[in-house]
Amino acid sequence: MRQIIIGLVFFVQLFSIFSCRNKPLPNQGMIDLLKQSEKYEYNAENIYCPEAIIKFNDSILDVSSAEADLAKARYDKANALLQLGEEQKAIDIYEYLLGKT
Fold first, then answer.
1. Diameter of the chain by CA atoms?
2. What is the pTM of this model?
3. In the predicted model, is pLDDT for residue 75 greater than 70?
């Protein structure tokens, strides 16, 4: 009798392990959507992603030689720095721009 109970408990546990393993998550659709949108979120055109804006404008500052492009890139970078809370860096850029005009 004791062996039957132990065997029954073993099979119930084994069944529960295999039955729970293949169930899809109830919110898998939302997880997939978030992973897909994450690719497009980090973009310099997204005004809510100042990190991408700073990186984009740094690349313009490294490559461009046109003064108008450089001024716009500095201005946009300063605005993004303000969004990140780095006011002193933004002020330094704004003062540089004021000195150039």
1. 95
2. 0.64
3. yes
Residues 4-24 as b/e (b if ≥16 CB within 10 A, e otherwise) read eeeeeeeeeeeeeeeeeeeee
Rounded CA-CA distance 18/76 in Å is 55
Residue 81 in tokens:
């720095």
Residues sharing a CB contact under 8 Å with residue 64, sequence separation 6 or more, in sequence order? 70, 73
Which token pair is 46?
């997204």
Q: Which of 99, 101, 44 is nearest to 76 (CA)?
A: 44
| pLDDT tens figures, 15-57 | 766 666 666 778 888 888 888 887 778 888 888 899 999 999 9
Two tokens at 4?
A: 């039957």
Domain locations in the chain as residue ranges:
38-101
Type of residue numbered 78: A
